[in-house]
Specification:
Helix content of chain A: over 70%
Oligomer: heterodimer
Number of strands of chain A: 0
Order of helices and strands of chain A: HHHHHHHHHHH
Shape of chain A: globular
Structural class of chain B: alpha+beta
Strand content of chain A: under 5%
Radius of gyration of chain A: 19 Å
Largest sheet of chain B: 7 strands, mixed
Number of strands of chain B: 12
Distance between the termini of chain A: 29 Å
Number of helices of chain B: 9
Shape of chain B: globular
Structural class of chain A: mainly alpha
Strand content of chain B: 15-25%
Largest interface: A-B, 28 and 31 residues
Order of helices and strands of chain B: HHHHEEHEEHEEHEEEEHEEH
Helix content of chain B: 10-25%
């Protein structure tokens, strides 16, 4: 019953509302960073917030199809928006790291090559590029079944993102491991076989 | 004996809490009067202590949580009075020393030191305290002692962070005896002339300015003189990343990030990184301690 009602309500929510809601944190964070609202080290705080939000959006995106399959909750129409927003946050995270934290391009390049956790973070970003570029109706039509296969890269992106977070933590920290576990479970459930349909 | 080491900066350089505005003028004035010494002053005259808020609201004290603002939020629960330090091992006069009894025999002085975290950020902190050498002298070090081991308070009901095995609690650190007895090495009990706040390691902590910040162990309850190199928490947690020495060294990177430069806290969103100095700028004072050692091997 509740699921039905949510499905009906979701049908009335326009996609732009998801964009608007999820983009709102950007000006809020920037304002806070420039006015002391993010603590004594705004660069790190901004970098971390953007990265964490990106990972959360990736997880929300990965929830869409299991929610439909196991719960009957249909929010698939928001999946593209969620994916594009995740890309926006990853790109901003990368930009803050590049320009405000590391600051020079030779050091950025050296880090990408030498530091494994940065290498995998960067790999995640690169894998998102074809996904972001093909997140439109024209590409879906043009690519056909290949589009679905291409967008399975999302699994790799989410795993790389979570590993990137686990790897950069000092000591044994719970939060990044929780993210890695959630991502692993969400990918794992996709391996569960669909109940075999009765032959028609 | 206090005052073995002469600060490059005078009292006039410490920001009086309400009067940052006049600092530049003050420094210029004092310098003109010749009160700021000429030795190595060129580079260090720029050294401005971070404001109280930077120093006390941006901390690593994992017993209270791993976020930078966890210590300022939760360390208030730590009971710091009464406080005593168990001093044992290879000492002439082992025992539980009440902090008041130690302090009554020490001369508190101010030291303005750079503080460089292994995470590649830094601050400048005006500490108040005494030289560890004076405490060692008080308890009498036996000739066979070669190392000093330190231990932080472990009190789970006052420390929410120790519920998680981030590190193997209690936090422990160590120094070679000559490092511990070096005049730069101090036991701090204050910042900006006030009692040191809990999140900074109240009531008493170590400060070793040429080493990464985690060597400067907080809220010390035990000091043990040993003949063997003592275990240290971060080394036990990740030996490839954190060595026993952990001297600030721009040429030896942390396996996961570069140590060549640092971000000085307090510069805001667009501050430039600064080059990290060998031994955090205290090369003249301490390089001799490591003569002949391969610092990329003994990192």
């Amino acid at each position: 019953m509740l699921v039905q009602r949510i499905n009906e309500a979701a049908r009335r929510v326009p996609e732009w509302l998801v964009y608007a809601a999820c983009l709102t944190p950007i000006p809020v964070l920037l304002y806070a960073a420039m006015n002391g609202g993010l603590g004594r080290d705004p660069v790190k705080a901004l970098e971390h917030q953007l990265g964490e939000f990106a990972l959360q959006l990736l997880i929300v995106g990965l929830c869409m199809s299991p929610l439909r399959r196991f719960v009957g909750l249909n929010l698939i129409k928001f999946r593209r928006a969620i994916g594009v927003l995740a890309f926006v946050y990853v790109a901003l995270h990368l930009a803050v790291w590049t320009f405000l934290d590391v600051q020079t391009l030779d050091r950025v390049w050296a880090d990408i090559i030498k530091r494994p956790y940065i290498t995998i973070g960067m790999a995640g970003f690169v894998l998102m590029l074809p996904l972001a570029i093909t997140s439109n109706n024209w590409s879906v039509r043009k690519l056909g079944p290949a589009w679905r296969r291409l967008h399975r890269l999302t699994y790799a992106v989410a795993l790389l993102g979570a590993l990137h977070y686990v790897w950069l933590a000092k000591g044994f920290q719970l939060e990044p491991l929780v993210y890695l576990t959630i991502v692993s479970v969400l990918i794992g459930v996709r391996a569960i076989h669909r109940p075999s349909r009765i032959a028609a | 004996m206090a005052n073995r080491w002469t600060n490059d900066l005078s009292h006039a350089d410490v920001t009086p809490e309400a009067a940052y505005l006049n600092r530049r003028k003050l420094i210029a004035g004092v310098a003109a009067l010749g009160l700021i010494g000429s030795r190595t002053a060129v580079a260090q005259e720029q050294l401005e202590p971070n404001p109280w808020e930077d120093i006390t609201q941006y901390n690593n004290f994992y017993e209270f949580g791993t976020r930078k603002d966890d210590p300022v939020r939760y360390a208030g629960a730590m009971t710091t009075s009464p406080w005593s330090i168990k001093i044992d091992g290879l000492v002439e006069k082992p025992g539980d020393y009440a902090i008041e009894d130690i302090l009554s025999q020490m001369t508190i002085e101010e030291r303005i030191y750079r503080f460089r975290c292994v995470e590649a950020w830094s601050m400048v902190i005006p500490w108040n305290g005494f030289e560890l050498a004076d405490l060692l002298e008080l308890v009498g070090v036996k000739p066979e002692a070669r190392y000093v081991a330190f231990e932080t308070l472990l009190r789970p009901d006052e420390m929410p962070g120790v519920r998680y095995p981030v590190l193997d609690w209690p936090y422990v650190e160590g120094l070679r005896l000559d490092e511990a007895a070096h005049p730069l090495t101090m036991m701090a009990t204050g910042i900006y002339g006030r009692d040191i706040p809990n999140q900074n390691g109240a009531p008493i902590r170590l400060v070793v300015p040429w080493k990464y910040g985690f060597k400067s162990i907080k809220s010390i309850v035990r000091i043990t003189l040993t003949d063997d190199e003592p275990p240290t928490s971060w080394n036990r947690s990740a030996p490839r990343e954190y060595g026993f020495y952990s001297n600030v060294n721009p040429e030896v990177d942390h396996p996961r990030w570069s140590q060549a430069s640092e971000r000085l806290i307090g510069g805001g969103l667009f501050a430039r990184r600064q080059p990290t100095l060998m031994f955090n700028g205290y090369e003249d004072e301490v390089a001799a301690l490591y003569a002949g050692m391969d610092l990329s091997k003994f990192y």
